[in-house]
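User: Teach me something about this protein's shape.
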Amino acid sequence: MNSCYIYKVIVSPMRTNCYILKSKATKSALVIDPGDDYSLIKAKLDSIQASCRVILLTHGHFDHILAADSLRNKLTQVAIHKDDEKCLYEKDVFSSMIENDPRPMYPADVIIYKEGKYKIDEFEFSVLHTPGHTKGSVCYIFEDCMFTGDTLFKNSIGTTIFGGDENDLNESLKRLYYYPGDFAVLPGHEDATTLSDARINNPFLRKFKGSTIER
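Assistant: First, the predicted structure itself:
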């Protein structure tokens, strides 16, 4: 990735991958999925002399959003897909699992209504809507890096048991299989992979070999 340095901080008891993208040109940073442990994320930002200007949420599950309010300052913008927006201010099935559920949280500053190219602050990226794990799950693409949240893992995928939809997830995975080019895949949990490796070694993508996609 040419425009940013990428750092990973593992947060929450669910061991969520929180990513920090620091601009190579300024001290601005973008944070993806600050799921908990604000102090760990803040310590990393301080160590790289960066200030959080943008927070992107791949979906609305608690282990991807809980530190968003703590990271916010008057210059920070938070973005989430419209179908998961309510997760920021409505308690849900996970609330009983959280010792101090901070919801309702502040609403998002940027609501993602459609796929395409976005620019927030100085950060440019593309959004793919990949429903299935949740209705509002998305992948964020920065140059040659794809942040897949809980849609696609190394050799696995996210579950649909918490309000997801298997058919939607299957269609999203099929889109990723046929998405042109190769990318580093940085998932919401566990290790990174590449899209080309996932097409070969991830059984949930490999099954689409020889199929067709509707356009």
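Now, about its shape. The mean pLDDT is 94. The CA atoms of residues 6 and 43 lie 15 Å apart. If you'd like, I can walk through any region in more detail.
User: That's plenty for now, thanks!
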